[in-house]
Amino acid sequence: MKQELEAPMLEQKPKKEKATAISKPKMAETKEKTLSDLPGVGAATVEKLELAGFADLMSVAVATPGELIDASGVGEGVAKKMIAAARTMLDMGFSSGLDLLEKRKNVMKISTGTEELDKLLGGGVETNGITEAYGQYGSGKSQIAHVLAVRAQLPVEEGGTGGQVIFIDTESTFRPERIVEIAKGCNIDPDEALKNIKVARAYNSDHQMLLAEKVEDIIKKEGLSIKLVIVDSLTAHFRAEFVGRGTLADRQQKLNKHMHILAKLADTQNLCVYVTNQVMAKPDQFFGDPTEAIGGNIVGHNSQTRLYIRKGKKGTRVAKLVDSPYLPDGEAGFVITQSGIEDI
Ligand code: GTP
Ligand code: MG
User: How far is the CA of 144 from the centre of ligand 2 (A)?
Assistant: First the structure.
């Protein structure tokens, strides 16, 4: 039994290299331009821009001159030149349908370990996009996060990606003991499973955003093959820190930026981002569902796949696919068990 447990992880090693080999040459070809390549922008201005949240050329390209003036103190002429230059430098080009189809071929799907839920998701949770699970407390969002964190490590033939996982934990919900149980359930050596999950505790929303920004660095510097990034919970800090009506716009703006960073990460690294989100009561809703996801449109529009999870009868859970761009809406039932989640 012990040997059986260890075998799949050992065999997996070459596969990991293969996975990085797909994305690395592409990265090397495009030498990325940065803020310091902009005309009239020195180190001091770069620092000011970065402090104000202008992290890359794209953020400058889509900014207004006023925003840049406020952020860095440059004059209007320079600000306009910066924007124009950022727009030219950026490859804002179009991809052909064929290129996109080719890209879709590299998409991997992480099986949830249940047939019904996999079917609902068109095979599993996809790389190259954000999957959001929202629902009330105790509905199973964090449990699915743990299941994915283990199953992503399985070889591709077994419904995984053969890659590693980053878990950004905002509410101290990560449970290593749970990883051990789930790993045993799918014949992965529990120690290996734990080693392949890099956990970072985020203490507030700024810290959470910073951690998300660092993922790309970690992948490059440490040569990791990260295929799944979990943010559990995406919205808890934002919800706690921005209270009251006046702060809603600020919160949404920050959340939007955070989602953009995650979306870019999913796209450029061909990895899966799984985020969890709570719901709040809609007091003015008399028909239909009386709850809605925190962060509303900002989170929803940035997630390719949205799952609404609720408690069903007799301890079961029901996942509903919401607004998928290409999958039919539908529902899948599952139960949370010792080894993860299972079909009813
Ligand atoms: P919030 O983070 O509070 O919004 O909830 P959540 O949606 O993340 O809920 P979570 O995924 O933490 O689900 C909690 C539920 O999972 C519990 O109510 C238990 O029913 C179930 N659960 C948690 N751990 C285990 C376990 O080890 N075995 C079994 N069978 N069930 C578990
Ligand atoms: Mg949770």
Answer: 9
